[in-house]
Amino acid sequence: MSLTADRNTNMRDGELFKFPVAAAVIIFAGSMAALNADSNLVPATATAALKIVGRAEEAVDNRNGAAGELDCETRRGCFCYANSTGGDEITRADINATAYVVDDETLAKTDGTGSRPAAGTIMDVDDLGVWVKI
User: Fold this and answer.
1) What is the mean pLDDT of residues 95-104?
2) Contact 70, 60 (CB under 8 A)
3) Which of 8, 82, 113, 132 has the fewest CB atoms found within 10 Å of its own CB?
């Protein structure tokens, strides 16, 4: 049904989101965070089925808790993470290409033959590391 009058539409800035944390995990502030198959937050790893959602804004220790017992706030944006090495090292020639997750703080040029989830778009590479827009 179409509107016939003004609508007070709720909004978010599209950057901050809170997700339930998976059981038996610890998420460190500043790490890349992902949703698992159960839509619970886990540290990013080289697991293709994960969906990267952003940077953890806080440390959450749910090692002794059930899934969803605790929440963690995440932020979407452009963040700097460590660069992989060897054939997976990201260079300036890779700017605007997709970066892939090695672990919760490291990015790679390739998807590891389908084993790594996409982290986001490579925006820059400098002495600090790889800047990726998640």
Assistant:
1) 98
2) yes
3) 8
